[in-house]
C-alpha cells in the first residue's frame, strides 16, 4: 500500500469523532427502545418517561433527541413488537394444515401476547394495533384465516372478517380488565366465543350494523 493509499484509508480526526458520536447515538437509541419495551409492557402507556430514561441509562435530553414525545416512542416500540409478533404468528398459522386450528391458535397467541404487555393490549383495544399499518396487517391476516375456514365449511354462515376483528377487540378488553385480578381468565371466554363461530350454529346472524371494509389506508 502506498503512502497515498494509507492516507486515504485513515479517517481524519473529525470524521472519526463523527463516527464515534453516531455509534454512541445508535447505542443510546437501542438502549431506550429496549428499556421502553420492558417498562411499557409492565406499566402501560401512561408510564412516566423518566422511568424509561433511568432504566436505559441515558439523560432526558438524550431521550427527547431521539423521541420528541412519548407517543413517538410508544408507537416505535409497540409497532416493532407488534409487527414482529404478527409476522411470526402468521407464519405459524400458515404452517398449520387444519384451518380451524390455525384460526383458534392465532387468537390464543394474540391474547397471550397481550396478557404479557399492558401497553400493547391498550393500543389494540383502542385502535386495533399500535399503528394504522399494524391494524391493516392484522386485518389482512384475520381475513386470510377466515377465508380458509369458510372454504373448509367450518364457519357459520354470514360471519365476516370485521366480526372477527371486533371479537378480538372485545376479548382484548377482557385481557385488560382481568390482567391483574384474574390473569388467564380470557381463555375461558375465548373458548365460549370460538364455539359460537362454528358452522354447526345455523341460526342466522343479525345484519351487521356497520360496513365490513378493512381499516382505511388514508
Automatic annotation (TrEMBL):
* Regions recorded as binding DNA: 48-67
PROSITE patterns, from UniProt?
Answer: HTH_TETR_2 (PS50977)
Pfam families tied to this protein: TetR_C_43, TetR_N
Q: Where is this region: Disordered?
A: 1-23, 198-218
Q: Where is the composition biased (Low complexity)?
A: 1-18
**Keyword terms of this UniProt record:** DNA-binding, Transcription, Transcription regulation
The record's section on SUPFAM superfamilies has: Homeodomain-like (SSF46689), Tetracyclin repressor-like, C-terminal domain (SSF48498)
> Residues in domain HTH tetR-type?
26-85
Q: What's the protein name?
A: TetR/AcrR family transcriptional regulator
List the top taxonomic levels of the source.
Bacteria, Bacillati, Actinomycetota, Actinomycetes, Kitasatosporales
Amino acid at each position: 500500500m502506498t503512502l497515498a493509499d494509507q492516507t486515504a484509508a485513515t479517517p481524519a480526526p473529525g470524521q472519526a469523532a463523527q463516527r464515534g458520536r453516531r455509534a454512541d447515538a445508535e447505542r443510546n437509541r437501542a438502549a431506550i427502545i429496549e428499556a421502553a419495551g420492558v417498562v411499557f409492557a409492565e406499566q402501560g402507556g401512561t408510564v412516566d418517561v423518566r422511568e424509561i430514561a433511568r432504566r436505559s441509562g441515558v439523560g432526558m435530553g438524550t431521550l427527547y433527541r431521539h423521541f420528541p414525545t412519548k407517543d413517538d416512542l410508544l408507537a416505535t416500540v409497540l409497532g416493532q413488537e407488534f409487527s414482529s409478533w404478527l409476522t411470526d404468528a402468521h407464519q405459524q398459522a400458515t404452517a398449520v394444515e387444519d384451518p380451524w386450528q390455525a384460526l383458534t391458535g392465532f387468537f390464543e397467541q394474540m391474547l397471550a401476547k397481550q396478557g404479557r404487555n399492558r401497553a400493547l393490549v391498550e393500543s389494540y383495544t383502542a385502535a386495533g394495533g399500535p399503528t394504522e399499518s399494524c391494524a391493516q396487517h392484522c386485518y389482512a391476516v384475520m381475513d386470510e384465516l377466515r377465508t380458509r375456514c369458510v372454504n373448509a365449511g367450518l364457519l357459520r354462515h354470514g360471519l365476516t372478517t370485521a366480526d372477527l376483528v371486533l371479537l378480538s377487540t372485545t376479548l382484548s378488553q377482557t385481557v385488560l380488565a382481568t390482567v391483574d385480578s384474574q390473569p388467564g381468565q380470557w381463555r375461558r371466554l375465548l373458548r365460549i366465543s370460538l364455539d359460537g363461530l362454528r358452522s354447526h350454529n345455523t341460526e342466522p346472524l343479525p345484519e351487521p350494523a356497520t360496513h365490513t371494509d378493512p381499516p382505511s389506508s388514508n
